[in-house]
Structures are given as C-alpha cells and as structure tokens.
C-alpha cells in the first residue's frame, strides 16, 4: 500500500519552492508601491538588510529541496547525492540563460541607440550632442559608457571608444555605429541616413532570430517532454498502487534500472538540446 508520506513531502516542497520564487516578486511590488512616497515604511527592506546579514537564495538550490523530498519518500540518501551534483550544473545553465537575456537586452539597446541618435540628428542636434543624450537614455554602452561620453563631450576618438564598447556581449552593433561615425567624420557623409540603415539591418537580424526561435519552440517542447516523462512514469506507478521509489532504490534490479535510465535520460537530453541549439546557431 502507498502511504501519504510522499504526498505530504511533495506538498511541503512545492510550498517552499513557491515561497522562495515569490519572495523577489513581492519585494519588487513593495518597492513600486512605496516609490516616491513621503517616507520609508516601518518594515523597510533596505533597513533590515543593513541590520541583518544578507542571505541570497539562488534558484539552483531548489534542487536540494526536491532531492530532500525524494530522499524522505524513498528512504535513501541517493537523491541527496544526485541533487548535490545537480546544483552546479543547474546553476551554470541558469547563469548561461541570464547571460543570453542580458545579451538580447543589450542588442535591443543598441538598436534603440541608433534610432535615438538618428532622431536627434533630424531634430537639429550635433552628432556628439546627439550621441551623448541618446547614450544616457538607452544605456546601450554598458561599462564603456563613461569613456564614450567623455570622448563625445571633449572631442576624443568616438569611433575607437565605440569599438571598445562593442566587445561586450550583444553590443556588436556598435561596430556599425563606429563605422558610420568614422565615414561621416572623414568623408562628410550623412550620419543620420547611415544610422537609419544600420538600425533597419539590426532590426531585421533580431526579427530573423526571433522567427527562428519561434520555429524551434516545438523542438524545445519535445526536449521538455522528454525530461518530464520519468516523473510521469513514477506518478503512474503510484496511481496504480505500486511503490516505484522502493523498487528503484532498495532492490538490485531497481538500482540497475535507475542507473541505466538516468544515463540514457541524460544523454538523450544532451543530444536533443545540442541538435536544437545547432539549429538556433544557423
């Protein structure tokens, strides 16, 4: 017979995960609610952070929560070992996803910068003034913003400063901006027209990337389904009145199936992800 212990443990783990993930969202709502008010609320988060040691919960540590639930349900230490091994792998994947989001945000900011500079030029501003105000508005220059703005304000080498800023992830469009600036300075060509064409080219490249991502959404859904299938199989076993965790963790045949299935699942996910990422890079 199946006891209620796994169900209770799963409910507790789900509640803990929800609280951890909802914490940052609640803090953002509170900051927006009290922004611009007459004073800080009595429970001001900044005050408590100054008084108490900072504790930052990373999402990859939820692997240990899930592993602890499985360890209690299966009465085995193996899920804890697997969860500890999964923490750095999941953390690396989450950091890669964060870098990808930052890269896309920077690329969008570069497009906005080109459009803003072109707009300021059409409004009658000088190129250096237009770049100065547009860069401060869009935030596309990242860590090199101070150097580029100094070059724009005090007559420095603006194209070279833009090329240095283009070395950051997602900012490669600044190379085109530097080239347009160089041509306009050396040959007297219209900078605004060049920036309009550059903005159009960067937008087209971004739209092409988004269309490819939409076409590969089904493939990524297949990868996710492949990852969830073992969990579905365990749930079906519980629903049929079996005890799959006891079989997997406390019998020789079950341990063999667990090791073989885990290896096959890992290799399958890696290979499917590799195929889909290769399609994205085309």
From TrEMBL:
Keywords: Cell membrane, Membrane, Transmembrane, Transmembrane helix. The chain crosses the membrane at residues 6-21, 61-90, 174-195, 216-241, 253-272. InterPro entries: T2SS_GspF_dom (IPR018076). Its main location: membrane. It is a multi-pass membrane protein. The keyword Transmembrane applies. It is found in: Cell membrane. Pfam families: T2SSF. Coiled coil: none annotated. This is Membrane protein.
